[in-house]
Structure formats: C-alpha cells, structure tokens
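Changelog note: in this version the structure field was regenerated for every chain. One regenerated record is shown below for reference.
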Amino acid sequence: MDHFLYRDGELFAEDVPVADIAAAVGTPFYLYSTATLTRHYQLFDDALDGMEHMVCYAMKAASNQAILKTLADLGAGMDVVSGGEYARAKAAGVPGERIVFSGVGKTRAEIRAALEGGIRQFNVESEPELLVISEIAASLGKTAPITVRVNPDVDAKTHAKIATGKSENKFGIPIAKARAVYAEAAALPGIDVIGIDVHIGSQLTDLEPYELAYRKVADLTEQLRADGHNIRRLDLGGGLGIPYTRSNEAPPLPSDYGALIKRTVGHLGCEIEIEPGRLIAGNAGILVSRVIYVKEGEGRNFLILDGAMNDLIRPAMYDAHHDIVPVVEPDAGVEQQPYDIVGPVCESGDTFAKNRMMPPLRAGDLVAFRSAGAYGAVMASEYNTRPLVPEVLAKCDQFAVIRQRPDFDEIINRDTIPPWL
C-alpha cells in the first residue's frame, strides 16, 4: 500500500496534488510520502512484537537525511555500508549505538571513525577485516562489538546482481568455516563477539530461502554457544521484496516474515535485528517526469521524457519494471496504445519500457514512475551534465524540497583546470 492515489482525476501524494509540486519544483523529481514510510516501518516493528529487536533501516535504499530522521524518530536503527552513510546517519541525529556497519570493504578510516563516533556493531565480512578492526580498536583503547557475516550458500531466487548468499558471491564467510573464525575473533584484543549476521539478497518474493538460511543460523548459534561464545544477537538481514507491478502476485507480508523469524530462531533468546530497505522506501517514493516529445517511429511510437537513465538507473541496470502512470487520470475506457518510453540521454539503454500500453499522451503531460523510492535517487548521477534530481517529502497537506536541484554553474565549478592549461 502507498499514499499516491487519484482524487477527482488527479494524482495526489497524501493530501498534496502532484501537479502542484511539479509546478513549484520542476521536473524530474523524486517525491516521498511520510505516511507510507511510517506505515512500512511500523509493519516490520509490529511483526517482531514480543521479541527483543531493532529494525535497522538499510539506508542504501534511500539515504536523504529527512527520510532517515523520519524513521529514526519512530525508533529505527540504521544499517550503513560506507563512511559517508555513517556520517549521514549521525548528521540525521541517529546515535552510534543504533548504527550497524555492514559491507565487504570497510577502510581503516571508516572503521576508526565508527569506533570514535560510536557503533552498535560491525558486521565482519572477512578475516583480514577482523584483524584490522582488532588492531584499530586496541590502538584506541576501545572494544569493537562484532558479528561475523556467514554465507549460508542459499539461493535467494532473485536477480543475479542482487543475490548475496550463494557460495560464489563476495559476501561473508562460508558457514562451514564460521566456528574457526569465531575462535580466532574471541582470541583477539579489542573484539567483543556478540552475534551472527546473515543476509542472502534483495527483492526476495519467497520465504523459503529465508527459512533455509535462518535454520542454518540457528544450528550455528547452538554450536558456537557450545564452543563458549556468548551469542546474544542475530542480525538476519533484509531483502523482502515489493510488488513492482499492480498485477503481480504480492510478495510475503512483513507479518509472515516475522512469524518465520519467531519460528526458526525465536527459541534462542537472542535479540533480533533486521535490515529492511526496499520494502520501507520502495513504494514510498515516485519519480515524476514530463513528456518532452511524442515521436512517431517506424512501427512504434516513443514517449520522450525529461527523466533519464541517470535519474533512474534500475531499468537499464536490472531490466527492472516500474509501473508508469499519467498524473492526470485517464477517462474510463480510454483506448490505450503501445509506447516505447525513453529518456533524452544519448544511450540506447536510456529506455524505461518497450511497448508499454499507455493512454494517449502529449508533450507537457506529467507521468509518475511508481515504486521508485528505493535505489532511485541514491543511484542517480550527473551523466551528460544533467543535474541530480531534487527530492521532495510530502506529509499530509505539506511538502518540502529535501534536496535541491543543482544549477549548471554549481556542477561545472566543481571542476578545476590545472595551471598548465
């Protein structure tokens, strides 16, 4: 469910007409709904009711500080994967004890900054990383709380580029090697072994891979406790999928996911962390764009938009589908026709959809890409010297620009011409 609905033939974000925002901000722009962010966070929090837990939002999905503060004010922790994300979380007012640091390539500078600024835990992905954390923590006179990310070799049945739990993926330590790595960690200075981490991928639409992975984690917990480790926290990752088309069978609900967690690891008495990102932010955001031209081609028509692949890379990168709807609701029964929907970037890959059935549209009409809140703005670039897309947050009958569109001077003035030119 989201809060982008038609009223009297016009698309609204909560109680704000989308066309009014377009007139004030210009297109293209990302638009988020506070009510949808809140509802989706609450679904996860409620799903784990009765267990000690923390929902740590995976901020790589959408990391604007306004989004982070909205979720943090509800009680969310943050899952970060870079020093920049850690700094963003802190700038949004999230205390270090609610920040989990994941990622396979943490640098020394990032580890030091997190230890100095406060951290809930490091999710360790390799033995070399473990040694570096130990070295830095000991040099600072601090103790680093860590989990080890285990790779359970479970097929998440998702897109190959977002699967993370198979043996050939770069993430984590093979689960068969885990006991040896935990023994090594326990012997290191500056390290406090607190739990286990697992994350098998993104956009999962089936609970079976989670069940397989979490049962392996439960078995490992018992083994590690028998080895003398005080395993008291399980970070179970995220990755629950969202429906990108209104016609698709709906993915599992957070309540079903929560029930599975209770069934597979609830008996262990551990604090549970989960790291949802896409399901919290995905349907909470849309990308609004304007038709520049309607072009008649050889055997097909094109809708050429002012939004492009640099604004929303997912279709070009993943062949991802986004429902695209007119901001002005078409009349009932209007005859639709196929369009290739493309952007203005000089790449054939700058194509959002082919042969997409749409009502007749004209230059100047507004369209909205649904389910664009996750991995949209955060993956945008300035390719072709196109300014980064502004971001807007709606709440009830208000809206605010939460990231401005830079002008050309701002972009160009970042360059420095050397003195010999």
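Spot check on this record: Confidence is low (pLDDT under 50) at residues 158-167. The longest strand covers residues 285-296.
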